[in-house]
Amino acid sequence: MPRTAKQFVDELGGVTAVARRMSVAVKTIYHYVASGKFPAKWYAAFCGLAVERGVMPPDQGLFTFDPLPAAAGDEAAA
């Protein structure tokens, strides 16, 4: 079963530690943990933080990546 945002943050040392390392407010991390998704632009930073902490990298499903749009001409199939 994939880790939740909270589980991942806990593995990294908790909300305060992650906020400090990411140079953001603690409430910012709490917000994203509560929503269950982190901004896609944080993916590389969180992968690096996971390496620093010796934990598995985050699942991409924890981030707000945009899906691939339909190819031109596929609108009728959708």
Q: In terms of topology, how is this protein built?
A:
Blueprint: H1 5-11, H2 15-22, H3 26-35, H4 43-53
Helix pairs in contact: 2-3
The total beta strand count reads: 0
Structural class: mainly alpha
- End-to-end gap: 30 Å
Percentage beta strand: under 5%
CATH topology description: 434 Repressor (Amino-terminal Domain)
Which term fits the overall shape? Answer: elongated
What value does the Rg take, in angstroms?
A: 15 Å
Helical fraction equals 40-55%
Written as H for each helix and E for each strand, in order along the chain, the element string is HHHH
Number of domains: 1
CATH architecture: Orthogonal Bundle
Low-confidence residue ranges: none
How would you describe this protein?
With 78 residues, this protein is mainly alpha-helical. It has one domain: Orthogonal Bundle (434 Repressor (Amino-terminal Domain)). The protein has helices at residues 5-11, 15-22, 26-35, 43-53. Helix 2 crosses helix 3. It is elongated. The two termini are 30 Å apart.
Précis, in short:
This protein has about 80 residues and is mainly alpha-helical.
List the keywords.
elongated; mainly alpha; single chain; 78 residues; 434 Repressor (Amino-terminal Domain)
